[in-house]
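seq/struct pair 1
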Amino acid sequence: MQETGNGVETRPVVSIISAVLNEGDNIRPLCQEIAAVLGQLPPAEVIFVNDGSTDATVTELEAVRHDGILPGLRILSHNTACGKSAGLRTGVEAARGEWVILLDGDGQDDPADFISMLELCRATIGERAPLVVGVRTKRQDTLSRRLASRFANRLRSRLLNDGCPDTGASLKAFRRTDFLGLPQFEGLHRFLPSLMGQRGVPLVCVPVHHRNRLHGSSKYTNLNRAIVGIRDILGVMWLNNRARIPKRVTER
């Protein structure tokens, strides 16, 4: 909750969620950037889900809250590492806002992009609020990672026909209830355009900033991403093929 000038707490409109694993060195600078844009958003809450970190991640999160950088910061923790999608699911289930913004905890995403993405998300298309996906037009990654990502995106786009050039980008905004209606599995966050699209959620892709990781290294290797990614694509193809979802439900 956010407190107004007269001491009355207001329910958050948007929930900003990040699932983190061993990102202790990146927590404070990222939270400072998030705090800097909160005044330009509707009432918001910030949720960090600690996915079984073994470094100082939780200590840093508590310090950020104690020092007043994000005094209302919510810190949720898994007792063991369950994966990024599980962490995001934990955060979205606990969220109190109608709208959700996801970002990574490594500092590569720019919180300044929250503002335009949320505006697009709340501008409904027809009767539905869209899924807004940030597309990294100028990626600050190694050449091998960029090539691997390009191959994965092209393969996924060809097989799933989801209309999204960069589903691996972590910055996404959507209506909370649209996410909670999806089946849960590790890797889910990379297939939101396809899975939400099957359920009638429009897709909006918008260019976003992408920066070098502040500290530490990625938790995934190119080979790991490729093997798991192909398996997940086949799984999502099966889910989409077997889904029978009505466009409209009426009651008399």
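seq/struct pair 2
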Amino acid sequence: MPITARMSPDQLDAVLREALEANGQRFTDQRAAVYRFLRSTTDHPSADEVFTAVRGDISDISLATVYKALETLVSCSLAVKLTYGDGSARYDARTDDHYHSRCLVCGQVRDVPGEPHEVLPHIDAGAGFQVRGYRVEVVGLCPACV
């Protein structure tokens, strides 16, 4: 579901509970807090940034628990893990196909507006290859780093 769809905390918890149970996982307050935070932001936070934000709601949550919660959300298709060559990872609650721009100086990641099919031409991935999705990243300098 696109991040633009606003849901109440109860609705988010219901979506989370259903996805977790469908994947043999259990619902926890920690996973719910991480999921709610990801769905509340259009930023693409690192695990450390999620930890800092969620710690305000659950003071005894550990960074390891946040990492595990994020990986569980990814495995349940409720979030996407954006990985880069420098070893960094950021998380996105938007699971639909869309593009990102990443600043080479500060590392900020933003969604690129517009429909992917408007910008990306048809790609022939080869005979028999079944395309399930794609990731496109535009790299450069954000306005703050120019």
